[in-house]
Each structure stands twice: as C-alpha cells, then as structure tokens.
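Appendix C: a fully annotated inverse folding record. The material below is reproduced so that readers can follow the format used throughout the book. The structure is listed first as tokens, followed by the designed sequence.
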C-alpha cells in the first residue's frame, strides 16, 4: 500500500450503510462518494489522494487520470476496478449480477436477510468522468443525499429524468447497460425500497486514508 507522509495509507474500498445508518448518512447533506456532486454542492472536484489500493493492497488506480480514463490511451488501459478487486471495507467480494439469482432479489425483506443477494450498485451521483452533473434540473443525488422520496417514474430504473433519484455504478462492472463502475444509471427513486429494487444497498466508494 502507498504511504502518505510516511505513516498513512490510501485505500479504496466499498463501504455500506443500511437501515439506521442510511438515515444518519443522508442527513449530512454531503455527497456520499469520492466525487463531489449534487444540487447543493455542484463542485466538479474529484478524489485527490492517490494512488488507491484495495483492502489487500492491490492497486486500483495510480492517479485520477488512470481512475477515470481521462485520455484515450488511459481509457483503453482501464483502471483495476473489477469484481475481484472492488472489495468491501472487510475485504469481501460484493455479490452481483447472476451470482445467486432469485425472484425476490429486489425486495427489502429478502435482501436484509440474505447475504447472497445482488447488491452491486454503488452510489456515486457522478458522470463517468467523476464530476457532478451540472447545468440540469434532473436530480442525480437524491437532493444532495437528503431525500428518501419514493420514485415517481413508475419504473425500476428512472428513464424519464422525472423525480428524485441518484446515479449509481456497478461494483462488478456488469449490467446497467454500460457496465460503468461509477455512472451506469439512476435508481428508480430515493427510498430504501427503490434502491433495493435496482439491486443496491446504498453502498458507496470509500477513498480513505488509514
């Protein structure tokens, strides 16, 4: 792992919040991602401490340009975010699309009791380049992560740009139409039921110094 000031280490991992934790976090009014975004905080800054390693010391990306593929060459190279490297804070793989398929996979009752449910959606609120959506009235951050409003689009995934929702990526880079790790699609709303229905648990990328 990379040393910062000789003592600290930078880690990239997937952290989670659920039930009571969800309520505490969304009230903070700050984006739950390394990418600052949202109507109340429209800055375009991105995570700056780098390089990033996962819980086992495997390099995820050496810098911002590598992480987001800022040039054609870097985009072709790609970062090292995969299902096997994109781990939780406990070093665990996040179960994703097709691992343990079940018709109940999109319900809170099932997901809260089954660790093998599909939970590969990660909250980012950002565009693929890691920056906030600006110049639009469409909500990509659940009102800067202060809203738990139910979806109004009538669909599992918001497709009409109407109503509260947040942008998510795929931790396993599988699904969502483009397999993007940070900007695959929007949720169907901001309630727990909406997030679970699109195969998420409100997980977010944690770029931490430890």
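Designed amino acids, in order:
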């Amino acid at each position: 792992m990379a040393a910062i000031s000789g003592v600290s280490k930078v880690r990239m991992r997937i952290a989670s919040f659920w039930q009571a934790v969800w309520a505490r976090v969304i009230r903070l009014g700050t984006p739950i991602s390394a990418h600052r975004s949202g109507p109340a905080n429209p800055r375009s800054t991105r995570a700056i401490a780098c390089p990033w390693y996962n819980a086992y010391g495997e390099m995820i990306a050496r810098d911002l340009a590598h992480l987001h593929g800022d040039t054609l060459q870097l985009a072709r190279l790609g970062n090292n975010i995969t299902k096997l490297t994109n781990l939780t804070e406990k070093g665990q793989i996040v179960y994703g699309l097709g691992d343990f398929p079940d018709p109940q996979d999109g319900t809170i009752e099932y997901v809260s009791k089954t660790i093998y449910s599909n939970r590969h959606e990660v909250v980012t609120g950002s565009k693929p380049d890691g920056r906030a959506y600006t110049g639009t009235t469409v909500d990509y951050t659940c009102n800067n992560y202060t809203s738990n409003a139910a979806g109004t689009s009538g669909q599992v995934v918001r497709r009409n740009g109407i109503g509260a929702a947040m942008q998510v990526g795929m931790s396993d880079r599988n699904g969502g139409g483009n397999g993007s790790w940070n900007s695959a699609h929007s949720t169907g709303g901001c309630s727990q039921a909406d997030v679970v229905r699109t195969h998420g648990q409100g997980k977010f990328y944690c770029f931490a110094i430890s």
